[in-house]
From TrEMBL, chains A, B:
InterPro entries: ADH-like_C, ADH-like_N, ADH_Zn_CS, ER, GroES-like_sf, NAD(P)-bd_dom_sf. The keyword Oxidoreductase applies. It comes from Nocardioides aquiterrae. Its cofactor is Zn(2+). Gene3D superfamilies: Medium-chain alcohol dehydrogenases, catalytic domain, NAD(P)-binding Rossmann-like Domain. SUPFAM superfamilies: GroES-like, NAD(P)-binding Rossmann-fold domains. This is Zinc-dependent alcohol dehydrogenase family protein. PROSITE patterns: ADH_ZINC (PS00059). SMART domains: PKS_ER. Residues 8-336 form the Enoyl reductase (ER) domain. Belongs to the zinc-containing alcohol dehydrogenase family. It comes from the Bacteria.
Amino acid sequence: MRATTIHGPRDIRVSEVPDPTIQAPTDAIVKVVAGCVCGSDLWPYRGENPITPGDTIGHECVGIVEEVGAAVTSFKPGDFVVVPFDHCDNTCPHCRFGAQNGCVNLGFTVSGQAEYARVTQADGSLVATDGVPDASLLPSVLTISDVMPTGWHAAVSAGVRRGGTAVVVGDGAVGLCGVLAARVLGAETIVAMSRHEPRQQIARAFGATHVVAERGDAGVEAIKEITGGVGADAVLECVGTDEAMRSAFQMARPGSTVGFVGVPHGVELPVRRMFQGNIGLAGGMAPTRKYMPELLAMVLDGSIEPGLVFDLTLPLDEVAEGYRAMDERRAVKVLIEP
Amino acid sequence: MRATTIHGPRDIRVSEVPDPTIQAPTDAIVKVVAGCVCGSDLWPYRGENPITPGDTIGHECVGIVEEVGAAVTSFKPGDFVVVPFDHCDNTCPHCRFGAQNGCVNLGFTVSGQAEYARVTQADGSLVATDGVPDASLLPSVLTISDVMPTGWHAAVSAGVRRGGTAVVVGDGAVGLCGVLAARVLGAETIVAMSRHEPRQQIARAFGATHVVAERGDAGVEAIKEITGGVGADAVLECVGTDEAMRSAFQMARPGSTVGFVGVPHGVELPVRRMFQGNIGLAGGMAPTRKYMPELLAMVLDGSIEPGLVFDLTLPLDEVAEGYRAMDERRAVKVLIEP
């Protein structure tokens, strides 16, 4: 099949690789209808994470079940499914505790930007729609694979409450979905930290009541002003850098929680401030499957449209341009059609 | 008045110092009936925290109101009161949010091991009993000044749930109160990490179902075994060292929370493990006043007896021996009678 592969920093190609196959009776193979590029794909793209040259890349996709293993009972070829980036059996003690990210049979999508993807623990992982979704809904359905549940996880972990104030640090697609999540969860004041006009627009469409372009101390100062000196009831950290995390903790009011979903790179947590202020940290890699049914239902009934984060659609052959566009912040998030 | 003062590492004296006086109309002066030595007093005692030689030390006490400032309306001379170590107005936005530790008028008791103590924000801070408590209740009432609310805060922050498993790291008086809190909050399996026989006995009296003497990897292994490989539903970190914190995160199951109340010294939080496992951190300096009414009521109706943590009572003149006894782990917690 044709698949996106990574060969070094900023070296993304489309290569012919072996088709994925059923390797365990719990596996399924999905023919990808749409995949996309994740902000976290940019870490290896920029050389910040180690890679094995020639490996496939891409972990978000939706598609049609092509083949299932002998033990898969809930899905059959032809079903349209959303594939969570993190696969789980959804029955182990960790899954039952709501920590599907820690499933004893945890797996990951490794060829979401390709013609086919293998899903481990298909029965536990996949969520099907009733037929193929309308093309207009497809981008939003695709976000349920990762970016929307991840933004949602930031908001839930930060304890966003009805009537409260939520600040979202990071204006990537995850941060924008965090804004949307905060709105759905009833936050009254929602601040998007963003200096990019197109992203500010999406943030406002998603429910941001304030946009703050400043960063660092000036950004913290702006939040203090918006909150009457108190600080935010909930802060969503959707970047993963030390600077973003530090700002998040400075914006958070005593007794609140920072919900973090940006993969931490070089982050040193300010434990003294956390202690003195009683500012907690919660979140991490999203237990995607936990949130999928609820979020997919909201997409299908039109109450949320997270697909607005896609501002560029490219055929698989041009996936390298998709990475470039996101790296250079010319695009928020790129949808890939195999 | 006679007060405990610190002059250098392991140099604790009883000195004649000026009586505390009303400095703001919201102040009260309390004649100390009982004070005590806190585990956190041992940090400066051991030279781990900077001090100003000659400063008074001690932040836990109960006593009788001696004098009140002009603005104090809820208390009058003669009232028996519990003094939280952290004073708050209990009306500011942070207090109303349940983060009394972050009160805009935050203050601290600085002469709890002395004849008199000044309480700032008396109306917000103090909680009175109906008359002087019976002598047999006094030690337990004294714990409401700090150690019991701190252990309680660890348990609440860790999200201890009815029927769940709670592990308490640290067998100081705070850790022991954490065991008691976990029992009151309904944990079914309560593991006290303790290698000291007298502390193990108190832990069992407080509700520990298991005692684990091992530390480090062996301690983590023991918790894995007790929890069938899953890890603990809630971990209370009541020490404040890097080793204790690391162990706590290794014992905690994915999706759970470490509740921390030990003042962090040299702690580097394991952010990658927190991210991958979705193990949160919550807690910090206790919002003592928030919990005081509830905990005091439990003490007065006999449903809890946290005063069992006191295994040595000394007159103020012998306070230095109290520090020595706690430093050498000959005593769990020392009650001081002025």
